Amino acid sequence: MARHTETLARIPVFQGLDEEAVRRLDTQCLWRRYDAEMEILGYKDDSSDVYFVAAGKVRVMIPSVKGKDTIFRDIDAGEFFGELAAIDGKERSASIVALTNATLARMPDRVFRDTLASYPPVCARILEMLVSRVRSLSDRVNEFRTLPVNNRVHAELLRLARPGESGGKEAIISPPPYHHEIAARVSTHREAVSRELKRLEREGLLEKRRGALVLKDIGALAELVERAHEDID
Q1: For labeling, which of 40, 48, 124, 188 is most exposed (least CB within 10 Å)?
Q2: What does the DSSP 8-state code read for residue 216?
Q3: Fold entry, domain 147-232
Q4: Cα–Cα distance measured from residue 75 to residue 104, given in angstroms and rounded to the nearest whole number
């Protein structure tokens, strides 16, 4: 992987800092490349450094000895993780596993806290992202409590999807997740996910293409989720 990926200048929360400040932070990080499927952090680890993803993708999860892992979210290049332990000094609340080959910057907790104090714009962006994650987690907890499995699948598909090239009603999930991965995200089993995806295909709301799932009408899918919330209210 090219050496030029090893700079925090590629991470959005550091945009706007002058080159000298970024270079200084770069030198205070330990840079490492991880192969796909390598564990980066373990659940309940007592480390407290913060990681910034310069390239690749990683997954936040809690493994289970019974094979029913809980998947929280995937983290793309430009994002970060590990900030909770750096702030409160407690053990890790999840495991982090590389989904693809990845390049990460490991920033010591002391440097992270000093950075927040020294650069208010960076601190503000970090806080905004933390608030966004809390809101997303609140939504998911509410879904687990109130929505039936099929609507939880719909909501997760909408979260995973990105706008299609042609815009409009379509959205794309690429690469397509395995059914057991969706199940681990919405607290159900693989068979329930398979049944619901087949039903969405029959109704013309989902199309399987090579290397992707295509949501044919994201508005209609979102309406199914909203209607389920209204029925419960």
Answers
A1: 124
A2: S
A3: Jelly Rolls (2.60.120)
A4: 12
Architecture of domain 3-137: Sandwich (2.60)
Q: Within 10 Å of residue 215's Cβ, how many Cβ atoms? A: 25
Question: CB under 8 Å to 173, separation ≥6 — which residues?
Answer: 157, 160, 161, 162, 212, 213, 214, 215
Matching CATH topology for 3-137 and 147-232? yes
With contact defined as beta carbons under 8 Å apart, do 74 and 127 qualify? Answer: no
Domain limits, the chain: 3-137, 147-232
Please give the Cα distance from 47 to 91 (Å, whole number). 7
Residue-level pLDDT at 232: 66
pLDDT in tens, 44-70: 999 999 999 999 999 999 988 776 788
Distance CA 154, CA 200 (A): 9
Task: Give tens-digit pLDDT for 145-179.
Answer: 899 999 999 999 999 999 877 668 899 999 999 99
Distance from C-alpha of 180 to C-alpha of 120, rounded to nearest angstrom: 41
The pLDDT tens digits of the residues spanning 124-152 come to 999 999 999 999 989 999 999 899 999 99
For the record, the structure tokens of 157 come out as: 């598909």
CA distance 172 to 211: 10
What pLDDT is attached to residue 167? 67
